[in-house]
Amino acid sequence: MPTGPDGTPPLWAPWYGIGFLDAFTRFFKKYARFDGRASRSEFWYWILANAIVTSVLFGGFYVALFATIASHTAFDAYGQPVGSTAPDPWVFLLLALYVVWVLVTLVPSIALGWRRVHDAALAGPFWLIAMFSGVAAIVFGVLEPSPAGAQYDRPDQG
How many domains does the chain have? Predict the structure, then answer.
């Protein structure tokens, strides 16, 4: 595995055995790079990081939504809701942050999957199958790396 001046693999090369935080930062450094390869650890650590952020933002939205609706709802003697049942406007800030997160990570997520199938010596467009089938994404995510995948590396592009 080639290494750069700082001892880490260059962006065009896969980083086998990468740690969680390095995988997270490398994901954004390789924002829209569809050339090169991505190791299984790069791929799965990003899946984990994305799941954590998504759970916090979207889960937090739902918790806050139902908590504010419940706290603003009063009932009359007949059990009918009285007053506003609308959630506080700040609750939708979490939803907006979730939407921004999805939009910001859409292209690099596709690029990461594209590079992951390159590491298994498959053409990048195979990743399009995974976009419509979660099972295919799992299969592509666990495929063994192949030395033939080096054909997709672009060392001249840094």
Answer: 1
Are residues 30 and 11 in contact, defined by beta-carbon separation less than 8 angstroms?
Answer: yes
**Is residue 37 included in any domain, yes or no?**
yes
Quick one: pLDDT at residue 84? 63
Handedness of CA 152, 6, 104, 39 (dihedral sign): positive
Residue 11 lies in a domain: no
Kindly report, residue by residue over 48-83, the tens digit of the pLDDT.
999 999 999 989 888 888 877 666 566 777 777 666
Instruction: Name, in order, each residue with C-beta under 8 angstroms of 104's C-beta and a sequence gap of 6 or more.
Output: none
Q: What is the DSSP letter of 79?
A: S
Encode burial over 5-41: b for 16+ CB neighbours within 10 A, e otherwise. eeeebbbbbbbeebeeebbbebbeebeebbbbbbbbb
Range of the domain at 123: 20-157
Whole-number pLDDT of residue 158: 60
- Average pLDDT over the chain, rounded to whole? 88
Tell me, yes or no, if the pTM score tops 0.70: yes
